[in-house]
Amino acid sequence: MKWIREYFVKNALEKPKKKKTQKSILLHIENIKTIAILGNNKDEIDQISEVIHRDLNEKIKIMGNYYDEKSEDQQAFSYKDFTLIGKPGEKLNQLLSLQPDLIIFTSEKLNYFTLYLLQLQSASYSMGFFSEELKPYLDLMLNEEEKDIQSGTASLIKYLKQIN
Fold first, then answer.
1. How far apart are CA 37 and CA 131, in angstroms?
2. Which uninterrupted H or E stretch holds 153?
3. What angle do CA 8, 133, 15 make, to 5 degrees?
4. What pLDDT is stored for residue 1 in this prediction?
5. Is residue 53 domain-resident?
6. Residue 17 lies in a domain
7. Is 152 helix (H, G, I), strand (E, B) or coil?
8. What is the pLDDT of residues 56-88, one digit of tens each?
9. Which candidate, 110, 102, 113, places its Cα nearest to that of 140?
10. Which end of the chain, N or C, is surrounded by fewer C-beta atoms within 10 Å?
11. Is this model's pTM higher than 0.85 or not?
12. How many domains is the chain built from?
């Protein structure tokens, strides 16, 4: 059944978005109330959360999710969280309804489901590490020069602050 869902999600990614969202080029740091993280695993999300609270604001609400087909963790999602025709299920609809101000995308496991979630949250400002496949989805990208995720995230936040 995964291939059927993947087929519909892949088709949705190839279609141009119906409406272009107008985003401000500048995201003002003081206006950030919620941040969504799409990462590789729970540990990475926890590390990124530490950096955000340390470098931005302790009061920012953080929602972290990662793709894992075998995990039962609440933060994990998989192809099973999409309907047979590729629409987000109840769990993902709750995530999408939160409308974060900023999305930090660090997932190295590029798959159609993760990219589709990123596309569905296109109204939010998004940033992450450079990849050709991510060009249409991210507003700010950096080369991943840092060896660990904490220093890489600190660099992302540093450059986000500089463009403000």
1. 17
2. helix 149-162
3. 35
4. 82
5. yes
6. no
7. helix
8. 989 999 999 999 999 999 999 999 999 999 999
9. 102
10. N
11. yes
12. 1
Q: What is the pLDDT of residue 18?
A: 47
Of the candidates 92, 100, 161, the one whose C-alpha atom is nearest the C-alpha of residue 125 is 100
- 150 neighbors 47 (Cβ within 8 angstroms): yes
Residue 25 belongs to a domain: no
Give me the domain span that covers residue 67. Answer: 2-10+32-162
Beta-strand runs (E) in 40-123 = 61-67, 76-77, 102-105
CB 104 within 8 A of CB 37: yes
Q: Give me 114's structure tokens.
A: 């993760």
The number of beta carbons lying within 10 Å of the beta carbon of residue 104 is: 27
Pairing verdict, β 140-142 and 125-129? parallel
Question: 82 burial class (0-12, 13-18, 19+ CB within 10 angstroms)?
Answer: buried
pLDDT tier at 19 (50, 70, 90 boundaries)? very low
What residue has token string 């400002």?
125
Residue 152 sits in a domain of what CATH number?
A: 3.40.50.1220
pLDDT in tens, 89-116: 998 998 888 889 999 999 887 899 999 9
